[in-house]
Amino acid sequence: MRPSDFTSDRFGSLTTKPNSAWHHAYFMPVSIPRELSLDPETVAALSRADIALGRLSGLATVIDNPALLLGPALAQEALASSRIEGTEASLSEVLSAENEDVPIENENLREVANYLRAIEQGTELIASWPLTLRFFCALHETLLTGVRGEEKSPGELRRSPVWIGSPNARPETARFIPPHQDDLGELLADWERFVNDPSTMPSVLRGALMHYQFETIHPFLDGNGRIGRLLIGFELMRDDVLSAPILHISGYFEANRNQYYDRLQAVRERGEIDEWVQFFAAAVEHQANESAGRIRTLLDIRERYRANVRGDRSQVADLIDVLLENPVITVSAVVRALSVTQPTASNLLRRAEGLGWVRSAGRWGRGGKERWVASEIWQAVTRTDFDEEVAR
């Protein structure tokens, strides 16, 4: 880090650890502010984000079973957040892997699968646990077990310094060095109080400050970005803004990756909190509007498909919800989802093909199982063509 880059001490300053083997300067953040004076543009951005979240939340309450519309959205969130950290995988691969009833061999797909398990775990725990070190350490253990980074103490706070920069960066060339490990206890205690104490601060602003401080503290040797992004959704759930993790915010961060990192660093170096909050609020607004639009489209598809088979004596109507949960499907996945025989599952997919709901997408995975794609649902979720995505 270049000391000359740090021109403001509003949110922290560079310091050293005297009488320590670690002689490099590191950034020591101040406590998270409980009150902020923000520019009118920032206040307006927060207001737009709140309105968008309100629309999304209201829409989610009219769905008879919100879990039906979470599958692809959660997969997209897990994939985008993982790709920010260098994981190489596609949505078609992630959804196809979910159909497999065997361990996932591909390491990239295992990382995304772990992220999905961490989302499910957090969704269960948030009902009874506060957002504390215990909570995010449990998610961290799930995230890093059995994948790259497993040697970096899953579920445990780091006991050594870390630094951020290019893959071959050294402390001398790092762009950012987070707080010394001896400071983690004090900093995380303040983080816990900020997140859990009653506050009149808008939830989106709290989320922006919570995420900034978590990434700045960098409590783990690896996985900090993914856990920090997971916590955004859980903070919104804890504040009763959303009832489920249906905000795919990492998609915006992935699409604007450089700006995401630059805005976080600009708070540390120059105290540019308004710019960070505006960026964060824009991410929430954009993704909340996208999520709401996707849900409306999927609800329309479900009602049309149900109308198409009203009076049909087969179980093809039951296949609709299976496709909404995962628009990339196999015969064996239908067998498990509907508790039917393999011939019945195959016949149901052929019936769905005749109705124009699905088409064969070739063979994939161990054993070369045939997979089927519900093209209309896929496009509603991704705004892309399935074949084009597979060809990349």
From TrEMBL:
What residue stretches are annotated with the Fido domain?
131-282
| Residues reported in the UniProt entry to bind ATP | 85, 218, 222-229, 260-261
UniProt entry tagged with the keyword ATP-binding: yes
Output one GO MF annotation.
ATP binding
Annotated catalytic residues: 218
InterPro entries (UniProt xref): Fic/DOC_N, Fido, Fido-like_dom_sf, Fido_containing, SoFic-like, WH-like_DNA-bd_sf
The lineage's top-level taxon is Bacteria
Signal peptide (residue range):
none
Protein name (record): Fic family protein
Q: Which organism is it from?
A: Herbiconiux oxytropis
